[in-house]
Amino acid sequence: MAVATWSARHRWTALLLWIAFVVAAVVGGAAVSGNDLDESTMTVGASGAADTAMADADFGDVPNESILIQAADGGTLDSASASEAAQALSAAAAAVPGVASVVEPAPSADGSSLLVQVSLVEPDGNGDAEHRVLAQVAADLQEAVEPVASEYPELWIGQVGNASLSSAIDQVVADDFRLAEMLSLPVTLAILAVVFGALIAAGVPVLLAFSSVGAALGLSTFASYLVPTSELLASVVLLIGMAVGVDYSLFYIRRAREQRNNGDAVGRAIEVAAATSGRAVVISGLTTVVAMAGMFLAGLAVFDSFAIGTILVIGVAVVGSLTVLPALLSLLGRWVDRPRIPVLWRLTRREGGARFWPAVLRPVLRRPAAAFTIGVVGLGALAAPAVSMTLGEPDLEDLPGSIVEVDTLNRLSEAYPREGTVHTVAIWTEDGSALDVASVESAVSELTRSTSADSLFADAEASVLEVATEGNVAQLPVPVAGGLDDAQEAESLETLRALVDETVASFAGIAAGVTGPIAWDADFRGQLGERLPYVIGFVLLLSVVVLILAFRSLTIALTAAGLNLLSVGAAYGLLVLVFQNTWAEGLLGFTSTGAIVTWVPLFLFVILFGLSMDYHIFVVSRIREGRALGMPTRQAIEHGITASAGVVSSAAFVMVAVFSIFTTLSMIEFKQMGVGMAAAILIDATIVRAIVLPAAMRLLGERNWWLPRPLNRLNRLRVVGG
Hints:
This protein is 64% helix and 8% strand. It is built from 23 helices and eleven strands. The protein has helices spanning 2-9, 11-31, 45-55, 79-94, 128-150, 162-196, 199-223, 233-261, 266-293, 301-322, 324-332, 342-348, 356-366, 368-383, 404-415, 437-452, 486-502, 517-551, 554-579, 585-588, 600-628, 633-661, 668-700, and strands at 64-71, 99-102, 106-107, 113-120, 155-161, 391-392, 422-429, 466-467, 473-479, 510-515, 596-597.
């Protein structure tokens, strides 16, 4: 390819341009503040209008923190000691900057606890700025509480509130990802050292991957002014950037080494690698970008953010593989294979998979129908449990017990029991004018009478209409009866929304909607369920188009799409087997919620479909090479798979190892993501590529290269140098 050839011949220019680009992106991204997602941009479905209306309304709500006092041994609380501690805690809390007031200590009904409520000063601004200020006040309050708590060893004293709990969760997530990032580097280097048997060759893919990640993160800061950035974007970009960056370099370097081993000079080896592996990298990058773009169709701000970040890092990694990678290989020459690791170096000289892959492939090609049937039936059986997949959002009870604030919250809920979750009815004027409070109160009275007569809702005494200071928005809490299961909570939402439409929303000029945790979860699941077919259709259609242009074959394109769907389905089935049951709880350190986290399936689909294409395109490219050299289809299949098996296995091993690190994280959604991605990549690189794909291509024979007559003119097109 012309770009790679130019880069190899002008290696210092290409290298310096790449360094300048990465530095400019990183420094430029650090120089601007960016635009982060906040609550106003994360609305969804029917609850979205209510959330938007209430976003800027001032109801005089005061943020607060709770300090709970109990007996350290779990027994009877010493009232004298507890009262003395409560007074000391109240005095310490009142002295903390940002604390507005401290409420008199309140005993629990059973006398086992004493509660000190601390109201915080509501900061100016909103979104992340407000969150940071409240988090700092909560942290300062914790520092004031700790010395007092140490003076009363006979008491258990804990603090919890929205600010402290949110900060604790954020800190656990940040620490988990930091650990995953720290582990991924040595794990990747160790595997690449085994793959290449030389330290410089092992370091080059990591260098390209990290520079691509840095540049993409810098560029994503600028992109955030079009699409706001999720707080998890950096971790997602690192995850995908390491995967594709290492893969692309691995494919390229191994092919260049293969050519050198065959007697080519360094320059010629780079040219051949560019025309073969380089072309496969570009096609793979295009199909992966198409898959990531499917997230835009989800209609959710967090997926828009992930789409932008992953598209940027894939694009940067592809550009790097075409520019700086050939330049580095040209600059290093045969020094890329230095310093050699003695035993590993000798093993890596046995290119082509040695005897193992030919031994696996031989019976597959001899009995393709049997191999294909066994492979498809096996993967289908693994995918079958996905039919019973249940989606749900983890709640506070599902958070890791290692978070002290979660333990405090559980103790608080037990000592001061509350009714079920609360729905919030938001009422607002469509033109922004002041509400007719009398008319609204009349409609609300009718609504309250209806909910009071329904067993799905709790006592209506808590349902008091509150009007914002601006006068154009009001809210009404409607408690859900305690002890309801998920289906009954969903029924309560549907019932309430129907009642709101009949009563409050029937007035001209007034709009109303229901929001709250139940509504948000239902709307989130509903939107994903509605949009998922569009995402799948979009990704499949455009991927097929790209592959038709790349390989001039409709059969190859459809086979790739079908096999990728099969591997994703198997990953879904495995997720259900592991996380909707309890047998793996001790092994992976989680408590089953009986559900898969709502966003995980869509995210896994686009990521896995894109990454699976890497292997498929690389393998089929080698098969196509063999056929172009005049080999019969069977020989071309055997040549392509045995020649590519080693590098595909190595790339998959890197991905599986990195993704497996996520199974050690605390949050269950990240465990599910890690298991799903690691399992799918492992299945795809072994069963699918080594058994099902060659069996399918062997059965199809010359029909592999079939292109309908109306599409024959595509043979005159050249895709990325094809």
